[in-house]
Amino acid sequence: MILGLxxxxxxxxxxxxxxxxxxxxLTTFAQxxxxxxxxxxxxxxxxxxxxxxxxxxxxxxxxxxxxxxFVLDALAAASRGTLVYIGHPNLAPIGMxxxxxxxxxxxxxxxxxxxxxxxxSFLRSLALRVASRVTATTRYTAEVLVEIQHLSRSxxxxxxxxxxxxxxxxxxxxxxIVASLPKSPLLLTVARxxxxxxxxxxxxxxxxxxQVLTIVPDTRYVIVGEGNDRPxxxxxxxxxxxxxxxxFVGHTxxxxxxxxxxxxxVFVMPSHAEGFGIVFLEAxxxxxxxxxxxxxxxxDVIRDGVTGFLVEYGDIDSLTSRILSLLQxxxxxxxxxxxxxxxxxxxxxxxxxxHRLVHLLTGGSACAF
Length: 369
Description:
Number of helices: 13
Oligomer: single chain
Strand order of the largest sheet: 3-4-2-1-5-6-7-8
């Protein structure tokens, strides 16, 4: 049996997206080998659920945060398992317990970024070191696993996440919402507006808008997302006198989000702590140049000067310069956009993710980092 243990699969979010993709690959991998595959999800609603990822229909069982039942079911399944794929380091101690009970069992642990950038508890850290293999989404996180979590390089594999299949398919449903914005150069950020994630840098973009507006006076900045940090950002926009140029549109569905990506001229999120930054891929998939922070996992996503620009967090002058260089140069925007779209298609499709993971599952060598 192949067993997949995840914190969540059904909800939106980067970790959940990667978990869905991994669960789909495990399901297909098991089917082709004629062995059962069980997918368990700690935080999803209780009961059995069917999830479609591309051509794969997978089944999972949710536990509604009932940790005891989740662990008991996982341990029961492990008695029939040969490989356990663990989708988050918080669940790694379960794998170590399984291996203590069944020494021949192998377990893998996926890390996503900030979840391993700081020293972990003794138990979680030990569970990572005992794992048969640990995957990282970026070179930066892989290096952190070596330096801070003290893992051997030989046990770390690089597997970046992917866009959902068909993400760029657009529909007319979102056109009305986007049409309500004035026709003008458009900056876009897509992010959770959570007070714990102020590192994403929307406040910095708002702070540079007065300077941008002196050169490109009709610029608009659209922020897609919701959270408890929105009042602070709205107050900041008023304080620097750019409120009429900043549009907070809240949560959107897929169709509406697609339209905002299509409508924007530049995607910007100068974060200093992104584990990866799937939104950069989304924007690039629509042929848009991107500006991100030269920190964390973002340099693995943005090719500086090729698909967009990297800036140091808080560097107002550099961010202003990069935004203006793109807003004032359509040829550069289009060139970077075309290159970015090709880069995403070649490296970050679900098919590419599937090939990478199957390669490792079948004993292939890890990607260098």
